[in-house]
């Protein structure tokens, strides 16, 4: 048994062949198009068919799109998948301990019942209970959350024995007692009796939390001093007046459960989620000091109790464990509709990109669902005889924390020889404070130090959460991510600058670079949604005539680039069971996000860098909204969002509709279709991909439609843009 492998890596040779062939052919086509653009600049001014300014803008956009595309091909260089054999890991008494970190901040956006379901699912992991320690960080210092964890601890005395005795896989009681559970149980009379009793206890827990919320009042469930409160650390224990002990719970061992609310003061930065995780790391180092850490979002519950054992298949493998920092599982969601109009499942990330990264140096740290080796967060090499004062400058003044650092450290890390001096939490120790995407920053720096990671995606989702089911939540979340990525992109830690001299491969660097540059899609997409249309209405061609001899070569190449990109996208979608509609939804969301949240996230980052704004973090709303969920399930966009998001995308759709109609009239009556064919096609494609927006403006009458006032304001914005743009073009044409 000891000689058998704990995991097997499968290299997708056919995908590698297809991806590299596509890269070669598509790159050659792009090179030809770039050659055509450059040749225009060397034409005699009198022979040029278009003003230089719009031509340069389109050319710059094509270059930026090509550059980001090229970086993204590194994801597809060597895709792999893995199979694990958790039955081959050591016996329970030889397994290492695990600390589970769960973070919540606002019970109004992250319902307490949802958070407690995540806590209970973590406690129900199939792992020795004496080696499992669950920590809940309440960053809002909410009395409701504190009440909720006490109620969850009481209910756990019933829930955990029930799960263990009957082998329940769905550790989340809310989902288990719903119609969505796939392991209802054995069906015996004894089981059904125990199930009903456990369900009644669960309903009691929910009622207690609901009543506490009503006493607090909506909007007042956070502490009155959410930004100004002392620290609270409480280890949950059985109460002396505990009413009755259930039959199944007589000799059941319980994992440790700890409530943590860190000290927060208005005058001191708290660094959002990264700060909360670092506090949990310091607190847990004194209480349990487990060598491995599982990090979960407050709504991402454990859907398979064996995830810890699967992760140990890698962490306990001597062939990979020395340099392995973390095992990343995909984020899956239980509320995704078949149509998934918002691309909430993040298909490309977890089914394509992360598999590709796994064939390089490992996936990006993804914020949740990962098992981290604690020592990997301790910066560089730590020596047993290192000066005490030097350690205190790095980890703080707590003697207990310093003791835990020395205790957990083992010299089994990659060959990095950087002296530990003046490191501080959030800079070189723990989760990093460089941006609000602390997972991206921390994972990148770990890979730069020589650490690796692996991606494990079993057939049964190991973790399930709530996906975004409204346009508003999607764009708010996207703005936050874009802000954090641009923070990194325009800093000294930009992957393309910081990565190459260090212990990270070129291909891994390109993948990190593609993610960091993703918000910059806003620039070329805004250009392609406005400049060709403006020139079309003013009779200015940006592409060669159909009758031009250059066009005989250019048009097939242009069509090939477009069709090859679409075909490759469709192939990847179909490969995992998607459809043409899935591809269309993903492209539409990409367009919408590029002209809205990518733009605002980039501007927000720039304003912070010049001191015009302070860093902020708005958690994604986890509260179920029945009306919005219903619209999502039937495949209709919910346009109940800020005008800041609505106006740009509505105005651009109106502009492209006007350009297409006006261009079509021009082609019919003026007869210059040979000059305007490509620009006319671009306008049509933008309109076609965004038909749901037109439907929301004109056809729909429900609550989720686009309000007439927004449409009217967007029309005014489009007219102003066309008027000013036409004036500018007429000026630069002379």
Largest sheet: 8 strands, mixed
* Stretches with pLDDT under 50, minimum 5 residues: 240-250, 409-423
Record the strand order, biggest sheet: 5-6-4-3-7-11-9-12
Please report the number of helical segments.
25
Rg to the nearest angstrom?
A: 28 Å
Return the structural class: alpha/beta
Total strands: the figure is 13
Overall mean pLDDT stands at 86
How would you sum up this structure, described in words?
Helices cover 51% and strands 8% of the residues. The chain has helices spanning 13-41, 52-72, 112-123, 143-166, 173-176, 189-216, 272-287, 307-315, 347-358, 388-395, 399-408, 438-448, 471-489, 495-498, 506-517, 522-528, 531-537, 549-575, 580-595, 597-609, 626-633, 643-669, 673-689, 691-698, 708-732; strands at residues 7-11, 80-84, 98-104, 132-138, 232-235, 256-261, 292-297, 301-302, 324-328, 332-333, 370-373, 452-455, 463-465. The longest helix has 29 residues, at 13-41. Helix 17 (531-537) packs parallel to helix 22 (643-669). With 734 residues, the protein is of the alpha/beta class. It has 25 helices and 13 strands. Helix 3 (112-123) links the parallel strand 3 (98-104) and strand 4 (132-138). Strands 5-6-4-3-7-11-9-12 form an eight-stranded mixed β-sheet, sandwiched between helices. Strands 8-13-10 form a three-stranded mixed β-sheet. The protein has a two-stranded antiparallel sheet with strand order 1-2. It starts with 6 loop residues before the first strand and ends with a helix.
